[in-house]
Structures are given as structure tokens and as C-alpha cells.
Amino acid sequence: MLESPRRKPLSGALMFGVGVGWVVVYIVCLLVVKETDVPRGVGIALAFAPILPFLAFLRILGRVSREADELHQRVQLEALAFAYPAMMVLLMTLGLLELVVPLSPDDFSLRHLWAYMPALYFAGLALAWRRYK
Fold first, then answer.
1. Pick from 64, 112, 118: which is nearest to 87 by CA?
2. According to the model, what pLDDT value does residue 3 have?
3. How far apart (Å, rounded) are the C-alpha atoms in residues 109 and 52?
């Protein structure tokens, strides 16, 4: 049986670069859709455009995570274990608050709320690394 050739380990710099590329594509699409009068079909295509760079980011992230040692994998898991429930609490609270107080869509639309997820993940990452240092 032939063995598959060993893949070269991926670097965090590649993951960071692809992540930045995804964010740039998202921001460009957001600005074009928001600031110009594009036809509906073009707007829909632009709304889906950031998906491919994000999937590339997820693929690299998954591979980097699999190649990490146990400590790094545990820290990543703890960061996610913090971020996911924290985001649920934020969404639940905003949902209930919106029934009582009108929330501005300029501040609390889905276009803005997704950005809290990476912020909460990085907060969880900082907490997890503090525990293991």
C-alpha cells in the first residue's frame, strides 16, 4: 500500500493572511452594496462572495488545529467553550431587550452582531492562555 506524502505543516501566518483576505472581501462587498446602487442580482452575489474566502480560512484553521499539540488544542477548545455560550447570552439578552426598548438597526443588526463572535473568541483565548501560563 502506498503512503500518502506527508503534508508540509501550515503556518499561522498563512492562516492570518487568509483570514485578513476574507475580512477585506467582506468589507469591500459591504461597502459596494451599502454605498452604491447595484442591481439586486449583483447585490445577492456580493452577499455570498465572502463565503469562499471564509471556507478557505476554515479549512486552514482546521488543519492548523489538527497539527497543534494538545495544549494548543485545549486552549482553542476552551476559547470556543467561552465564546459560544457568551454569544448566546448576548443574543438572548438583546432579543429580550428589543421587546422592551427599540434597538437601533444601525447598531444591532445581524450585519453588526457577527463581529462580536471573534471578539468573544479572542477574549476566551486570552482567558484560557492566562490559565496555562
1. 118
2. 54
3. 23
Q: Which residue has the cell 476559547?
A: 79
> Of 14, 20, 5, which is closest to residue 118 (Cα–Cα)?
20
Q: How far apart are CA 113 and CA 79, in angstroms?
A: 19
Structure letter (DSSP) for residue 39: -
Q: What angle do CA 117, 62, 77 make, to 5 degrees?
A: 55
Q: Label residues 118-130 b or e (16+ Cβ within 10 Å = b).
A: eebbeebbeebee
> Block means of pLDDT (10 residues each) for the chain, length 133 residues?
61 87 95 94 95 94 90 94 96 92 85 89 95 87
Q: What is the pLDDT of residue 133?
A: 82
pTM (global) more than 0.90: no
Q: Which residue has the cell 476574507?
A: 22
Question: What's the pLDDT tens digit per position in 62-83?
Answer: 898 889 999 999 999 999 999 9
**How far apart, in whole angstroms, are the C-alpha atoms of residue 131 and residue 86?**
19
